[in-house]
Structures are given as structure tokens and as C-alpha cells.
Design brief:
The complex is a heterotrimer of chains A (about 240), B (about 240) and C (about 50).
Chain A (H helix, E strand, L loop, with lengths): L10 H23 L13 H28 L2 H33 L7 H22 L3 H31 L15 H35 L15
Helix pairs in contact in A: 1-6, 2-3, 2-5, 2-6, 3-4, 3-5, 3-6, 4-5
Chain B lengths: L1 H8 L5 H18 L1 H22 L3 H27 L1 H5 L2 H4 L4 H34 L6 H26 L5 H12 L1 H16 L6 H28 L1
Helix pairs in contact in B: 1-2, 2-7, 3-4, 3-7, 4-7, 4-8, 4-9, 4-10, 7-8, 7-11, 8-9, 8-10, 8-11, 10-11
Chain C lengths: L8 H35 L5
The chains are: A mainly alpha (about 240), B mainly alpha (about 240), C mainly alpha (about 50).
């Protein structure tokens, strides 16, 4: 399979800068300007960073799924580089979501983890993505690595709504408190600014990370073929 | 083992023939290695014993969580049986010898998945008496319990067979198989534990049907999806 | 939900700081690797 072309566009940097500006503005508004919410108090301000992270995470998961499917159909390794970026950044965002959720839950419910279906599904998919990243580490052949992790990504992504539904149902029978409202009050500006900010930053990171994957793939594929040293696989028979 | 390979090489035309031939081979293989299944059963029973030590000798607590213990024990045992199901293929590179048309690759998958499913159901059924004794979790509705075990085992077997095929030739296969499988089968695990619990402890609000529905839906989705994708996995 | 949650600023700071640090650290790592990859690609296509 051909080595993917690695783009050198400037656009990730523009997005990165724009994203950081939006995030700074949105966070400043959410932390200092907007008044405290009535029931939740200042703790509610966590939502101005938690909800945007959640939205962006969903976008990254869909992007990973799309890249996986695209690779299986088009056999172009550039989709594998994009999927690798999506898996890694998706894991990062999922981990952040679990931490933010726990930090929010402790003052609110008194426990670090309240088995909220959304966060629990995020945790499950975090483990699934980490498993796929681990799988990639152990497969040397680039094509096989790409195919297998694409298959695993599709299977894991399709599982996400099923996991969410089953946890929601499982939880609803035990939950004494109702699901928390994410944004009860109507302070949309910091939320929207942060949402745009995180999204732009993550798009830039995805582009840059897939470039890194592209460079690595190019180096790996440029190496002289090792059929002299490897054991016979029987495929020539 | 070459005799088993020849069983599959001959019928190459229609899918039902390929499936029956492959299935026959898998069941023959499992019969020949039934000693290993015995060992896995002992492992599962030991796991159930250890769970009761973790909880303590409270009869009420043990009975309440007996369904969870059964399925955790079965899940852990499945990592052994699933990995084993591809062991024979990697030994003589027999897997490449079986590489045929895409339709036959799918037949191979379903044959293995069905064989694994039967094995896990058998294992689960064998663990039931252990569960009854250790946790005082008896029930008169045995056929229903077996049906739940069968449905849950199907949920483990479909993705488990796919991932076992992927990890069979990798060095870290013992870690990677459970690492990949466990997050995926969370819905099946939840539903199976819940359904089993309802059978054993009683179902005052009639939820059993819904949980069985969730389990059946999961099984349907993954038996089709994994079969579809298996061709690409084995192709490389 | 009953009553008003008072205080909790340390949690708010923790959440924002964690998010900022994680994104920043990851960003720095990716940018460094991207630069390194570009440097190696420009320098050594005459291999093999």
C-alpha cells in the first residue's frame, strides 16, 4: 500500500489560535462575568467546559468511525492516519470528560461517580479506544494494523448507543436522584464560545496528529522490505 | 490435523455446505479437546468460590449478587476458551490454508462462533449447580435460566470469536483479547446479569422480557456485524 | 435538587485547570512530533 501524502497546510495553526482565543474568552466569561446559578451555585460553572468537551468528543468519535469506514472502502492509508488521531484524541477527551464529571459530581451528589449513563458510556468507550490503541502497538504490518483497528473502531463505535441505552435502563431502576440538568439557566454565550473554541482546537489537533501518523507511516513503508529475514508465512504456496 | 483441513477444502461451492462442513470440523475439534473445557470449568468454579470470599459469608448478600458472580466467572472463563479456539489454526498456519472465497470465510466465522457459543453455554450451565450450592441461588425455572445463559453466551461469543481471530497470532494475545472484548460486551453483561437475577430472585414487575429483548437485539446486531467484517480481518 | 450549593470554587478551578493543562500538554506533544516528523522527512528521503 502506498505511503500517504502528508499535507503541510497552514490551516491547523489558524484554527489552533482561533480556538484558544475563543476558549479564553468563553472561560473568562463563564468564570468571572456570568452570575452564579441559583441552585447549583458556582459549581455550575464547570458545565461551561464540561458540555463543550462532551459535544466535541462526540464529533471526534463520529470522525473516527467515519475514517474507519472510509479506510475499509477506499484502502487509502491516509484514512488510517486520521483514524489514529481520532482514537488518541477521543481517548484524551473521554478521560477529560470522566474527570470533569467526577469533579462536578463530588460537590453536587457527594460521590465521585454517580453512574450517570452518559458518563458511564463515555468511560466504557474510553476503555474500548484504549484497547484499540493497544492493539495497534502490537501489529507491525501497516496494512493489517489499519484493517484490524478499523474493524475494531467500527464495532466499538456502533456499540456506544447500545451501551448508553443499557446503562440508562440499568441505572434508572436504582437512581434516587433525577439526572442533573446540564445548563438550567440561559447563559449560552460562554457555552457557545467554549464549544467553538474546543472544537477548533481539537480539529487542529486532529490534523496535526494525523500528520504525525502520516510521517511515521511513510518512514515505516520506506524501509527496505524484510522478506529476507522474516519467517515464511505460507502465502506463496 | 490435516484430516480436518481436508473436510473444508472439498465443498467450496454453496455457503450452507461450507457452513455445515466447517461446523462439523469445529465440533469435532471441540470434542477432541474436551479435556481443556474441563480445566476451564474448574477455573470458573474456582472463580465463583473466590467471589464468595470477597463478599463474606453473608447468605443474603451472596444470593443477591449470585447472578453477577456467575456472569463474571463465565466472562473470565471465556477469555480462555475463546483464545483456545484459534490456537489450533495458528499452530500449523492452518488458517491460511483455509483461506477461501469471502462467502467461505464467513462460513468459517459462523462455524467458530457457533461452536464457541455452544461451549460457553455448556460452561454456564455447568456452573449453575456451583452457583446454587455456594450462593443458595436455586430456582425452579431452570429452562428459563438456561435460555438466559444461552442468549448471554451468544453475546460473548460473536465479538469474542472475531477478536480471538485478530489476536491469535499476536504476542500479547492474552492481554489484548480481554482488553478489546470487555468494554464491548458491557450491554450483554448488564442485560444477562439482570435477567439471570430476575429469574433467580423473582420478577415482581415483569421486567424480564425487556432485558431479554435487549440481549437478543445485541446478539442480532453483533452476529451480523462481526460476520460481515470477518472477511476483512482474515484477509490480511 | 434541593437547596443551594455554596462555594465549591476549588472544584471549578480544578476542572478548568485540568482541561487547559491536558489540552496544552497534548498540543505541545503533537506539535513537537509533527515538527520532528517534518524535519526527518525533509532530511532523509534518500534512504533505502
Amino acid at each position: 500500500m502506498e505511503a500517504p501524502f502528508v499535507s503541510t497546510h497552514r490551516f491547523p495553526w489558524v484554527l489552533l489560535v482561533a480556538g484558544v482565543i475563543c476558549l479564553a474568552a468563553g472561560s473568562w466569561l463563564g468564570l468571572f462575568v456570568v452570575p452564579a446559578e441559583h441552585y447549583m451555585g458556582d459549581v455550575q460553572r464547570i458545565m461551561y467546559v464540561h458540555v463543550p468537551t462532551a459535544w466535541t468528543w462526540m464529533v471526534v468519535v463520529l470522525f473516527s468511525l467515519g475514517s474507519a469506514i472510509s479506510f475499509l472502502f477506499m484502502n487509502d492509508l491516509k484514512w488510517d492516519t486520521r483514524m489514529e488521531a481520532g482514537l488518541e484524541i477521543g481517548s484524551l477527551l473521554a478521560f477529560l470528560l470522566c474527570c470533569q464529571g467526577a469533579i462536578w459530581a463530588k460537590p453536587t451528589w457527594g460521590v465521585w461517580w454517580d453512574w450517570d449513563p452518559r458518563l458511564t458510556s463515555t468511560a466504557v468507550l474510553l476503555f474500548a479506544f484504549l484497547g484499540i490503541l493497544a492493539l495497534r502497538k502490537f501489529v507491525d504490518d501497516p496494512t493489517r494494523r489499519a484493517i484490524w483497528s478499523a474493524v475494531a473502531t467500527i464495532i466499538a463505535s456502533i456499540d456506544l448507543p447500545i451501551v448508553y441505552f443499557s446503562v440508562k435502563w440499568w441505572n434508572s431502576l436504582h437512581q434516587q436522584q433525577s439526572s442533573p440538568e446540564t445548563v438550567a439557566s440561559t447563559f449560552h454565550l460562554p457555552l457557545r464560545l467554549n464549544a467553538i473554541g474546543i472544537l477548533l482546537v481539537v480539529i487542529a489537533l486532529l490534523a496535526l496528529r494525523s500528520r504525525v501518523a502520516g510521517y511515521r507511516l511513510r518512514e515505516q513503508l520506506a524501509e527496505p522490505p524484510s522478506f529476507i529475514t522474516s519467517e515464511p508465512t505460507g502465502e506463496l504456496a | 490435523m490435516s484430516a480436518d483441513v481436508k473436510v473444508l477444502v472439498a465443498p467450496r461451492d454453496t455457503t450452507p455446505n461450507a457452513l455445515t462442513a466447517a461446523l462439523r470440523k469445529e465440533l469435532l475439534l471441540q470434542w477432541r479437546t474436551r479435556g481443556q473445557l474441563m480445566a476451564v470449568f474448574v477455573f470458573g468454579a474456582a472463580a465463583l468460590l473466590l467471589f464468595s470470599f470477597a463478599i463474606g459469608p453473608s447468605a443474603v448478600a451472596l444470593r443477591t449478587f449470585s447472578a453477577g458472580f456467575l456472569w463474571l466467572g463465565l466472562l473470565l472463563s471465556s477469555t480462555l476458551t475463546l483464545a483456545e479456539s484459534f490456537h489450533i489454526e495458528t499452530e500449523h498456519n492452518a488458517l491460511e490454508g483455509l483461506l477461501l472465497l469471502p462467502a467461505d470465510a464467513r462460513a468459517l466465522y459462523y462455524a467458530k462462533a457457533i461452536a464457541n457459543w455452544l461451549q460457553l453455554t455448556l460452561l454456564g450451565a455447568a456452573l449453575v449447580p456451583i452457583m446454587v450450592v455456594l450462593y443458595d441461588a436455586g430456582t425452579s425455572r431452570l429452562p428459563l435460566l438456561l435460555a438466559v445463559i444461552a442468549l448471554g453466551a451468544a453475546g460473548l461469543s460473536a465479538p469474542g470469536t472475531l477478536y480471538a481471530a485478530m489476536t491469535a497470532r499476536l504476542q500479547a494475545k492474552q492481554t489484548l483479547l480481554p482488553l478489546l472484548l470487555f468494554p464491548l460486551i458491557v450491554p450483554a453483561l448488564l442485560a444477562a446479569v439482570k435477567a439471570t437475577s430476575l429469574v433467580i430472585l423473582g420478577d415482581p414487575m415483569g421486567e424480564l422480557r425487556s432485558w431479554l429483548g435487549l440481549l437478543a437485539a445485541f446478539d442480532l446486531i453483533y452476529w451480523s456485524l462481526c460476520g460481515l467484517l470477518y472477511g476483512r480481518v482474515i484477509d490480511s | 435538587m434541593n437547596g443551594i450549593v455554596v462555594g465549591g470554587w476549588e472544584f471549578v478551578w480544578a476542572a478548568y485547570a485540568l482541561t487547559a493543562i491536558a489540552l496544552l500538554a497534548y498540543g505541545v506533544m503533537v506539535i513537537t512530533r509533527s515538527r520532528e516528523g517534518r524535519r526527518r522527512a525533509d532530511a532523509g528521503p534518500d534512504r533505502g
